[in-house]
Amino acid sequence: MIRIGLVLFTLFFMGCSEHLVRVMPYEKEYFSQDKMSLSPLGERAEQEGHIFLIREASAGGESAFQGGCGCR
Amino acid sequence: MKNIFIGLLLAINLFGAPREGDSAVEFQLPDLYEQNKSLSMKELKGKVVLLNLWASWCGGCQDEMPLFVELQKEYPKDKFEIVLSSIDNMPEGAKGFLGKVDKDKVLTSLYDEDKTLPKAYRCPGMPSSFLIGKDGKIVEVYIGSLDDDAIVELKAKIKSLLGK
Fold first, then answer.
1. B120: buried, middle or exposed (CB in 10 Å: 19+, 13-18, 0-12)?
2. Would you call A29 and B126 a contact, using CB atoms and an 8 Å cutoff?
3. Model's pTM, two decimal places?
């Protein structure tokens, strides 16, 4: 009974392992590329934020919370 | 049940990464610049070796490379040799980076296209460096990039391994 249980346990986790592929540190060449970044246009976003700041004449006006109206 | 447990322990031990005191992994890899040349671990026996597994896309690897160039300049290559093994998908990336940092080709550079060494050493991080003694045994494993302080400690170890 224990053996059958062990076999079923092994088969179950072997099935899971197919979907849980671990990417090793030495396999992350493509992940290290700029385009794989969560904010791929980080520099551009910063520049746009700066332009927005000047246009709205309000510090922190780039977020929805503060509205950017200069009337904080 | 006991047998299964012992078997599992043995399996874990067999597939474990080489550690300090273990023999360095045997390899034969082509030179980064001249593909018809190659270097094996056997040829390095009798020297103190710092084997560095790196890639041009790895920031930490880039940071420590100038320190390695300076370190190698302090020792004759027949006593202490820094051996770089690039795991870039394309060798051009590694050549391009080393062309800027190691213009005089002070460091021995190999190309490990199939990533055999990081697989064999089961590297948990990049870069990884292995200080290997004259007898071919691993003396120290370094995971992550080495900074100035680590280089000072490394020099002390090299000195003791060289028997100065």
1. middle
2. no
3. 0.75
